[in-house]
From TrEMBL:
Organism: Solilutibacter tolerans
Entry GO MF terms: metallopeptidase activity
Gene Ontology annotations of biological process type: proteolysis
Family of the protein in this entry: Belongs to the peptidase U62 family.
One Gene Ontology term, aspect cellular component: cytosol
Stated name of the protein: PmbA protein
Top-level taxon: Bacteria
Signal peptide: none
InterPro entries linked: Metalloprtase-TldD/E_C, Metalloprtase-TldD/E_cen_dom, Metalloprtase-TldD/E_N, PmbA, TldD/PmbA_N, TldD/PmbA_sf
Metalloprotease TldD/E C-terminal domain: residues covered: 242-450
Domain (Metalloprotease TldD/E N-terminal): residue spans on this chain: 37-101
Domain Metalloprotease TldD/E central: 129-235
Length: 451
């Protein structure tokens, strides 16, 4: 199933159109008397197909456009949006934003990011890889993926289906400081979920591969086989007596722990005093060997960017160094609320690299007389104010350094601050399918509640 590069790549022409639209909106805002204004224009195209039990279920093609404008009259702010690029619609959208701003209360923290912080080096990071994938080719990939998984073992009796999706996104951000920045990226995803066993003994699991370029996606047969292996491994699960033990979060699950940390040090949680990590800069929250580094310039990174959602120049920086909190995650609004400066994270963090001190999952299991490997989490039992953590889980019991049997119907519980401090190892076998790049994480002690 060879992919073909697009014979005609019109992305630069489309970006030019978005830039012209952005400039028109800024012009209209100036004419309406706004002291500052900012505009975001985006456009996306995509194809998604789904199959199940060898039959095509869905074929969807989408094309979307979004235009948002925010105006400021001093410290008063108003926003409006549209998907219509006709001039009369742009005029009406700006008028609506201005009307909202005139009737809102002043907010001392409102306004654009400071002009001197705007990005000037507007590089790309190898995130644009358009390829021609027809609906027939997408269906073929999904069918091959599911077929490979179902053929693995007679115990694979059912399927939740397989899917293939491709898409491309273009975006332009501009503001009245004179900043104009454009971004473009492509993405491709192939996934499969299979069901092993029969009746009440059925178990479901799956696998997926995602990349910014089509040639970066794993082949269909490999994805299907991994999905089958994971479903088969979960047959005949047990529960376990409630106890405390080490817990290893598999790489694809471990990134949720890093995500909880990022949420706890993000501006909105901090200025509302709704985080257990308020006033934590300079404090040791993780072990001394542990670090998290942000790299917005990673080639083919899922969140690589030269500027953030406010046009501020991004930069490489440590969030955690030697276990110590180096800075919060802030845009300009939250930074002003806290009396600090933006960290170029309006719109979120970029690529995060978590430091490692272990070879891989197998080496982390070695020497564990009894521990839990978590491969699935359920529920949202996270309290960011207190740090309390309680989630349903499934995975495998580790005994004498080896996987012993699958488990489900359990809950794992602790407190995020204590869990961060109790991290003993991070494996070097990272899951590359996310902007949070981490391997499996071993937490030395948690409560595992079962029977």
């Amino acid at each position: 199933m060879p992919a073909q590069q697009l014979a005609h790549d019109d992305s630069q022409a489309r970006i030019a159109q978005l830039e012209a639209t952005a400039e028109r909106l800024l012009q209209l805002a100036r004419q309406q008397g706004a002291s500052q204004a900012e505009v975001s224009c985006s456009e996306s195209r995509g194809l998604n197909v789904g199959v199940r039990m060898g039959e095509v279920e869905t074929v969807e093609s989408n094309q979307d456009r979004g235009i948002g404008v925010t105006v400021y009259f001093g410290k008063k702010k108003g926003s409006a949006s549209t998907g219509d690029v006709r001039d009369e619609s742009l005029v009406a959208t700006v008028a609506q934003a201005c009307a909202i701003a005139r009737f809102t209360e002043e907010d001392a923290a409102a306004g654009l990011a400071d002009a001197e912080l705007m990005a000037t080096d507007l590089r790309e990071f190898d995130t644009w890889h358009p390829a021609e994938v027809s609906a027939d080719e997408a269906v073929e990939r999904a069918l091959a993926c599911e077929a490979a998984g179902r053929a693995m073992d007679a115990r694979i009796g059912n399927s939740d289906g397989a899917s293939f999706g491709s898409g491309q996104s273009l975006g332009v951000y501009a503001n009245s400081h004179g900043f104009v920045g454009a971004e473009r990226d492509t993405h491709y995803t192939l996934g499969c979920a299979l069901i092993a066993g029969q009746g009440e003994d059925m178990q479901r699991d799956g696998w997926y591969s995602t990349a910014l370029s089509l040639d970066g996606v794993e082949d269909a047969a490999s994805v299907g086989r991994i999905a089958a292996e994971r479903a088969l491994a979960r047959l005949d699960p047990r529960s376990v007596p409630t106890s405390t033990m080490p817990v290893i979060f598999s790489a694809e699950i471990a990134r949720s722990l890093i995500g909880h940390y990022v949420s706890a040090v993000s501006g909105g949680s901090l200025y509302r005093r709704a985080s257990f990590l308020c006033d934590s800069v300079g404090q040791r929250v993780f072990p001394e060997w542990f670090g998290i580094n942000e790299d917005p310039f990673l080639p083919r990174g899922f969140r690589s960017a030269a500027f953030d959602g406010e046009g501020v120049a991004t930069r490489r920086s440590p969030l955690i160094d030697a276990g110590i909190v180096q800075h919060y995650v802030l845009g300009s609004y939250s930074a002003r609320k806290l009396g600090l400066q933006t960290t170029a994270n309006a719109g979120g963090v970029h690529n995060l690299e978590v430091s490692t001190n272990a070879e891989n999952l197998q080496s982390m299991m070695h020497g564990q007389s009894r521990a839990l490997l978590v491969t699935e989490l359920m529920g949202q039992g996270i309290n960011l104010i207190t740090g309390d953590y309680s989630r349903g889980a499934a995975g495998f019991m580790i005994e004498n350094g080896e996987l012993a049997y699958p488990v489900d119907g359990i809950t794992i519980a602790g407190n995020l601050r204590s869990m961060f401090e109790a991290i003993e190892a991070v494996g070097a076998d990272i899951d590359p399918r996310s902007h949070i790049r981490t391997g499996p994480i071993l937490v030395g002690r948690m409560t595992v509640a079962g029977q």
